């Protein structure tokens, strides 16, 4: 699940990682860059044509209705963000979830506070001291790899 990621290069890189690391599908909020933009498609190495994806429609309220819909479909939600209650990406309870929708936020600002609050988990990637974040494309690749090891 991608929230308001506007850089086509990041969109393409996320799709490429998602396809390479066996992610089932990608959902984008309406403010995200279109994966079919030439730059996104090129960076993705064509994987935007391989992996299923969709936009939440403009008449769907994100995050309220979007996260509710994911739950109705049987998904647990995980916001990739730094907070006091963040669990590590390798947390056994998180890895034990059958259906997990991982939510990544926009470049710079990250996820909206409402999105973080509405998700079931807040998840962090452990990093060296003094480094607190990665580019969204890099963070997605790490998360996809860690979560995909369970398959």
Can you walk me through this structure?
With 151 residues, the chain is α/β, with parallel strands linked by helices. The mean pLDDT is 94. The protein has helices spanning 8-20, 38-43, 64-72, 92-95, 113-118, 136-148; strands at 26-28, 53-55, 76-80, 87-88, 100-103, 121-124. It is built from six helices and six strands, in the order αβαβαββαβαβα. Helix 1 runs parallel beside helix 6 (136-148). The strands form two sheets. It has a four-stranded parallel β-sheet with strand order 4-6-3-5. The protein has one domain (8-148): Alpha/beta knot (3-Layer(aba) Sandwich), CATH 3.40.1280. The chain is globular and about 40 Å long. The longest helix has 13 residues, at 8-20.
């Amino acid at each position: 699940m991608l929230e308001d990621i506007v850089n086509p290069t990041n969109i393409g890189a996320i799709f490429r990682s998602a396809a390479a690391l066996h992610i089932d599908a990608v959902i984008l909020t309406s403010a995200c860059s279109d994966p079919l933009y030439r730059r996104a498609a090129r960076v993705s190495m064509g994987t935007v044509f391989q992996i299923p994806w969709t936009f939440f429609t403009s008449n769907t309220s994100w995050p309220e209705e979007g996260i509710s819909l994911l739950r109705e479909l049987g998904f647990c939600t995980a916001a990739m963000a730094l907070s006091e209650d963040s669990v590590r990406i390798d947390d056994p309870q998180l890895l034990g979830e059958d259906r997990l929708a991982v939510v990544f936020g926009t470049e710079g600002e990250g996820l909206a506070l409402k999105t973080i609050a509405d998700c079931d988990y807040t998840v962090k990637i452990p990093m060296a001291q003094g480094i607190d974040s990665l580019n969204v494309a890099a963070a997605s690749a790490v998360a996809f790899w860690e979560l995909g090891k369970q398959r």
